[in-house]
Amino acid sequence: DVLGSRGLGDVYKRQQQACRHLPNAQALVHPLIRKLAIADRQEGGHLLKTLYTYLIFGGSVSQTADARFLHRNTLRARLHKIQALFPADWDSPAMREQLLLSLLFFDPDG
Questions:
Q1: 10, 14, 33, 108 - which has most CB atoms within 10 Å?
Q2: CA quadruple 38, 45, 19, 87: dihedral positive or negative?
Q3: E strands of the chain, at which residues?
């Protein structure tokens, strides 16, 4: 469950299942999400979930930490890892939207 027991995990799963089955959905995935997925496998599988939760909560560290059941410093460390892999404009609403949609379309098995 991406968002713990907060109830949003089911919404995410339904959205993701619908998006992944769209024709050519994988072509819409931002290349940096694919790069992050490779690192995610090496890091234990928490970077994509952390990024998704962070984006859903509008970049709120406290809400993301609560939703992921993490200490804020642990979350900040994960975000620094993600930002090191993602030289992106994190304050750009357009970039955040693109990454969020990419996470919904992304199929790690596809």
A1: 33
A2: negative
A3: none
- Assign 59 to helix, strand or coil: coil
CA–CA distance, 10 with 36 (Å, rounded to integer) = 23
- Asked if 6 contacts 65 with a C-beta cutoff of 8 angstroms, the reply is no
Angle at 109 between CA 84 and CA 12, to 5 degrees: 75
Helix-, strand-, coil-residue percentages of the chain, each rounded to 5: 70, 0, 30
C-alpha angle 74/17/4, rounded to 5°?
30
Distance CA 67, CA 8 (A): 9
- Confidence label for 8 from pLDDT (cuts 50, 70 and 90): low
Interatomic CA distance for residues 85 and 79, integer angstroms: 10
